[in-house]
Amino acid sequence: MERPEPELIRQSWRAVSRSPLEHGTVLFARLFDLEPDLLPLFQYNCRQFSSPEDCLSSPEFLDHIRKVMFVIDTAVTNVEDLSSLEEYLAGLGKKHRAVGVKFSSFSTVGESLLYMLEKCLGPAFTPAMRAAWSQLYGAVVRAMSRGWDGE
């Protein structure tokens, strides 16, 4: 597995990880803008959200945001040994597949992640940083894709 530039990843994540919920909300707001069809996948107690805003302010969804930011944090921590996360990420892929997430949606999640990093870091988010994050996210999605394979 090709390794992204660890220092660029860590350095840029430091700013984001100070307020994960705030930045995670930016990521998901962007995701719903780009792919509104994902909204109905989030249902708690069989309740459909009437709007992205409704979803983004629900306690259950905020919990999901926290989990997603934790997964990214784990990937950042293990950036030099992503293969140690393969099983965990494949399991995560399976879970997403089970609730009806299409594998293709993960490219939109990647775009939303880069958007959030850019919003958070501004001019400090350099092309080299963007490339490192694209590489890291690509590796995470490849591992998760095993949850869609062979079933």
UniProtKB/TrEMBL annotation:
Pfam families in the cross-refs: Globin
The record's catalysed reaction(s) read: Fe(III)-heme b-[protein] + nitric oxide + H2O = Fe(II)-heme b-[protein] + nitrite + 2 H(+)
Family under the similarity heading: Belongs to the globin family.
One example of the protein's molecular function in GO is: heme binding
Q: Which UniProt keywords apply?
A: Cytoplasm, Heme, Iron, Metal-binding, Mitochondrion, Oxidoreductase, Oxygen transport, Transport
Instruction: List the taxonomic lineage.
Output: Eukaryota, Metazoa, Chordata, Craniata, Vertebrata
Task: Please state where this protein is localized.
Answer: Cytoplasm, Cytosol; Mitochondrion matrix
Job of this protein: Monomeric globin with a bis-histidyl six-coordinate heme-iron atom through which it can bind dioxygen, carbon monoxide and nitric oxide. Could help transport oxygen and increase its availability to the metabolically active neuronal tissues, though its low quantity in tissues as well as its high affinity for dioxygen, which may limit its oxygen-releasing ability, argue against it. The ferrous/deoxygenated form exhibits a nitrite reductase activity and it could produce nitric oxide which in turn inhibits cellular respiration in response to hypoxia.
Q: Which InterPro entries match?
A: Globin, Globin-like_OT, Globin-like_sf, Globin/Proto
Q: Which GO terms describe its cellular component?
A: cytosol; mitochondrial matrix
Indicate the segments forming the Globin domain, all copies: 1-149
**UniProt key word Disulfide bond:** no
Protein name, UniProt field? Neuroglobin
Subunit organization:
Monomer. Homodimer and homotetramer; disulfide-linked. Mainly monomeric but also detected as part of homodimers and homotetramers. Interacts with 14-3-3 proteins; regulates the phosphorylation of NGB. Could interact (ferrous form) with G-alpha(i) proteins (GTP-bound form).
